[in-house]
């Protein structure tokens, strides 16, 4: 089995360093183009299933990549792939979030969670429940899982040599992939932040 775990393309709120969470923002023109370029570069990959977060930026990215890569698949949706819920801080810029935003990006497991929302530990539990469920099928299929920055790190956190190092240096780039292989119920991390476009275009909008 192989899993291509995708962070969606850029949105206008990404460019403004806004924590989108569950806000249902579409891709920007730049995000659409990056998804198309990524899809065209993946023509040699045959996906058997595509599962996406129901949020528009993730499903739109998945649809563009499937179309441009020649994979005619119906997108399935699973809320477990949704982004972290920032609760009362949803839609705030990184600057507006103050210490809460800094802690989320510098030491996420020390962040107690957001008022009315989730903690990083919550996101790890729900995203990993999906990945472990799929791994348990041991069906030999290749999956495209379309998700978000925090969720993309959370879903594979248990595979990191040091799970406390949550971000691994930065938030995943837009339209980048984490690649996981699994066989007989055992998974291993193959690649982190793989891009199928000019790496000079990869931007970390959320560095602190």
Average pLDDT value?
A: 96
CATH topology: Rossmann fold
**Biggest β-sheet: strands ordered side by side in the sheet:** 3-2-4-1-5-6
Number of strands: 6
N-to-C SSE string, H for helix and E for strand: EHHEHEHHEHEE
Terminal Cα separation, in Å? 36 Å
State the major sheet: 6 strands, mixed
Strand content: 15-25%
Q: Give the CATH level 1 class.
A: Alpha Beta
Look at the helices and sheets and give the structural class.
Answer: alpha/beta
What is the total number of structural domains? 1
What does this structure look like?
It is built from six helices and six strands, in the order E-H-H-E-H-E-H-H-E-H-E-E. The protein has one domain (2-201): Phosphoglycerate mutase-like (Rossmann fold, 3-Layer(aba) Sandwich). The model has no long low-confidence stretch (mean pLDDT 96). The protein is 32% helix and 17% strand. With 208 residues, it is of the alpha/beta class.
List the helices and strands and how they pair.
Layout (H helix, E strand, L loop, with lengths): L1 E6 L4 H4 L13 H12 L8 E4 L3 H14 L5 E3 L16 H13 L13 H18 L4 E6 L1 H6 L22 E7 L2 E9 L14
Parallel strand pairs: 1-4, 2-3, 2-4
Antiparallel strand pairs: 1-5, 5-6
Helix pairs in contact: 2-3
Summarize the structure.
The protein has 208 residues and is an alpha/beta fold.
